[in-house]
Amino acid sequence: MGIAKGGLAGVSLMHVVILAFLFGARDSTGVVLPMLIVGDILAVTFLHQHARWEYVWRMLPPACAGVVLGWALMGRVSDAMFRPIIGWIILTLAAMQFARMMRPDWFGDVPHNRAFAWGMGLLAGVTTMLANAAGPIFGLYALAVGLPKFEIVGTSAWFFFIVNSFKVPFSLGLGLIHAQTLLFNLAMTPVILAGVLGGRWLTYRLPQRLFDGFLLAFAAIAALRLIGVV
After folding, report:
1. Could you tell me which of 113, 120, 151 has the C-alpha nearest to residue 138?
2. What are phi and psi of 74, to 5 degrees?
3. Would you say 128 and 164 are in contact if contact means Cβ atoms under 8 Å apart?
4. How many CA atoms lie less than 13 Å away from 123 in the CB half-sphere?
5. CA 194 to chain centre
6. What is the mean pLDDT of residues 39-50?
7. Which residues contact 127 (CB under 8 A, 6 or more apart)?
8. What is the mean pLDDT of residues 7-29?
9. Dist CA 29 CA 32 (whole Å)
10. Residue 18 above 70 pLDDT?
């Protein structure tokens, strides 16, 4: 989780899958959320200077709407139904972005359209509320609009700090955050700090194209895991 917040956002679904097995898919969202906010605070502290706020503001309104929609769906859509849907969406987006990397002229100016930003923001909001699985979605959006690696990390740090903080009342209302989960979160905080520092170290040393490739590869692997292929 710390490594994901420190720069390699595509790694984030690994902890989503592991904690879902340990605590159950629904309950794990409440276990994870305070740790994500700790990671967000650390990422903002170390990487805030790289943020591109225009991209935060483009994604934030639809993401908050997506959080509310995800909250409304949380008691109505089973995890078994929702995970494959998220997986196929992420896999499709990853394939599209890979095609754009190979042929930059494909899709034209689509990533810079307001409709594309709102669609990705809404998808990110729903998936982060239902599964804390929006890291690859924001990463794919950032790649699609051509942000350099440090701006991807700094922009996503602020975006997820705001969105995850917005999610707290909804998770509390659902009973997903309580004293036991907070004690567990407190014990994990030093490890998250180590991960953020490690992720930052890796980000500084990875060339841009390799960074983009890792982001896409991790997103695709996580999508296949959500679908149930791996």
Report:
1. 120
2. -60, -35
3. yes
4. 20
5. 19
6. 83
7. 66, 70, 86, 133, 134, 137
8. 72
9. 5
10. yes
Nearest C-alpha neighbor of 32 from the set 170, 188, 136, 143: 188
Q: Which of 5-9, 63-67, 102-106, 171-175 has the lowest mean pLDDT?
A: 102-106
What 3-state DSSP class applies to 47? helix
Which tens digit of pLDDT belongs to each residue from 103-147? 655 555 556 678 888 988 998 898 888 777 777 778 778 877 888
How far apart, in whole angstroms, are the C-alpha atoms of residue 188 and residue 70? 26
Whole-angstrom Cα Rg for the chain? 16
Q: Integer distance in angstroms from the first to the last C-alpha of the chain?
A: 20
Kindly list the domain boundaries of the chain, sorted by start residue. 2-227
What are the tokens at 108?
């034209």
Among 18-32, 76-90, 153-167, which range has the highest average pLDDT? 153-167
Unique residue bearing structure tokens 């709407």: 65
Give the whole-angstrom CA distance, residue 136 versus residue 93. 9
Q: What is the rounded CA–CA span in Å between residue 168 and residue 82?
A: 21
Question: Which single residue is written with the structure tokens 């009973």?
Answer: 175
- Its pTM stands at 0.78
> Residue 94 gets which letter from DSSP?
H
Nearest alpha-carbon partner for 161 in 46, 19, 28: 46
| Long-range contact set of residues 97-106: C-beta below 8 Å, sequence gap at least 24 | 97/140, 97/143, 97/144, 97/216, 98/216, 100/144, 101/212, 101/216
Q: Using an 8 Å Cβ cutoff, are 145 and 55 in contact?
A: yes
Token readout for 91 is 């896999």
